[in-house]
């Protein structure tokens, strides 16, 4: 769980940084780009979690 929080926090800061850099001369954040990048990060972490969970289920012993 700790890795997930650190990873999402890193990608949130990175997305805000990219949003600021791509906003241009007006000193505001491009929220569409920032939100899209963060959504990709959340989706990637969700896929990683799902794959790890499905692999763990395959390796569970079903013997007595």
- Uncertain spans: none
Q: Number of DSSP strands?
A: 0
Average pLDDT over all residues: 85
Helix content: over 70%
| Cα Rg | 17 Å
Q: What's the end-to-end separation, in Å? A: 31 Å
Please tell me the total number of domains: 1
Tell me the structural class: mainly alpha
Total helix count? 2
Q: Mind summarizing the main beta sheet?
A: none
Outline, from the CA principal axes?
Answer: elongated
Give the strand content.
under 5%
List the helices and strands and how they pair.
Layout: H1 2-21, H2 31-58
Helix pairs in contact: 1-2
Keywords: Membrane, Transmembrane, Transmembrane helix
Transmembrane segments: 31-51
Which key features would you list for this structure?
single chain; 64 residues; 0% strand; transmembrane helix; membrane; transmembrane
Describe it for me?
About 75% of the residues lie in helices and about 0% in strands. It is elongated, with a radius of gyration of 17 Å. It has helices spanning about 1-20, 30-60. By secondary structure, it is mainly α. It has one domain (about 1-60). Helix 1 packs antiparallel against helix 2 (about 30-60). About 5% of the residues are buried. Keywords: Membrane, Transmembrane, Transmembrane helix.
Quick take:
By secondary structure, this protein is mainly α. The protein has helices at residues 2-21, 31-58.
